[in-house]
Amino acid sequence: MPGPPRVTLDDVARRAGVSTATASRALGDHPHVAAATRARVREAAEALDYVASPEATRLAGGPTGRVAVLVPHPSRWFFGELLEGLEAALRAADLDLVIFRVGGPEERAAFFARLPARRKVDAVVVLAFAVDELEHARLASLGVDVVAAGGRVASYPSVGIDDHVAGRQAMDHLVHLGHRRIGMIAVGDTQRSGAGPSGKDVGCLAPEPDGRTSAWRAALGDAGIAPDDELVVTVPWGGEGGADGMARLLGLRSPPTAVFAHDDETALGAIRTLRRAGLRVPEDLSVIGVDDHPLAALTDLTTVAQPVRAQGRRAGELVVAALRGELADGLPPAELLPTRLVLRGTTSPPGAPR
């Protein structure tokens, strides 16, 4: 007759009320695990007569003092801000940050194909891109905690903003000014910067609706304005995309009087097209973005500010808490940081005099 089922590390983790990765570190005397958590895990292991397998022992090995960070576009402002905040929090805990670029599809596929052999870090942070099921399985094979910054990603603890709320702040401002024909330049390139919804890949395990697009529709509906899909264009991320999107909107028989762009860099591209067309901003057409990119203040762009660096810093704090065994097993709620409307000079009531 078969004997009783073998007790696994997962069983120990469930009994102790911690994640499997935390249980592994506790049994391996990881220095970042709190003493109370270590004691709780050991008590659970003794109660279950747990015997570590060679694989579990390998995963529990000594701490590396390193945290891997997966970033699609490290040269872009949004990711740079996330990295600044993340690095500050990890440095304060004597942890080093190791950056892995996962930009284009081929680069990303190659990285995840090699990932199971990369058990040389204590945790992983995913910056503002979603993972598909295969990538999720590869990350799980590392046996370490995973945290996301810049938006909700799969089933990981995450820090971001509420994109629908940010979109409503922008749209409600335009509606309040009296605009009724409001266009939207949405960003549809899933490999663009992680600022908001355009940083979420279509392969997310739990895809969320595009919050900024849904905000456009909801704000118009609440104001009694029928959404006109002719006023929506989708472009790749960046200034050139915004310039092209604005040109398409100006080509309509009845152009909008205001435009909501999904991010500031797209908004600035739209403004370039307007000025080259001899149109005044905001007298002839208002423009608003999201992010509060440094260029927004220099160009007097009205926008909705999001605390990007704070998102990175808070994600780092979650990593430290996970390594200390202070995060309960199971999915913590996504932490959403507040956004705020920043009034500048690119919005005004429709037809406002010079």
Automatic annotation (TrEMBL):
GO MF, one example: DNA binding
SMART domains per UniProt: HTH_LACI
Keyword Translocase carried by entry: no
Domain annotation HTH lacI-type: ranges: 7-61
PROSITE patterns to which the protein is assigned, alphabetical: HTH_LACI_1, HTH_LACI_2
Domain of life: Bacteria
Keywords, comma-separated and alphabetical: DNA-binding, Transcription, Transcription regulation
Name of the protein this chain belongs to: LacI family DNA-binding transcriptional regulator
Species of origin: Actinomycetospora lemnae
